[in-house]
Amino acid sequence: MLELACTQGTAFIVITHDETLAARCGRQLRLVRGKLPALD
Fold first, then answer.
1. CA 24, 4, 38: angle at the middle one, nearest 5?
2. Which residues have C-beta within 8 Å of that of residue 2, sequence separation ≥ 6?
3. How far apart are CA 2 and CA 7, in angstroms?
């Protein structure tokens, strides 16, 4: 699915606790105390 999204130029949202799977994604956003910190 990740490769398909990349070739199609679309987004693919993955929600996981698996660090190995998260490492395969181009971008990671992490919640801190249930909130998304400000993005730089």
1. 50
2. 12, 14, 24, 25
3. 9
SS3 string, the chain, reads CHHHHHHHCCCCCCCCCCHHHHHCCCCCCCCECCECCCCC
What is the distance between the alpha carbons of residues 6 and 37, in angstroms, rounded to a whole number? 26
Show me where the domains of the chain are located. Answer: 1-40
Give the burial class of 35: count Cβ atoms within 10 A of its Cβ; 0-12 exposed, 13-18 middle, 19 or more buried: exposed
Tell me, what's the pLDDT at 20?
94
Confidence of residue 6 (pLDDT cuts 50, 70, 90): confident
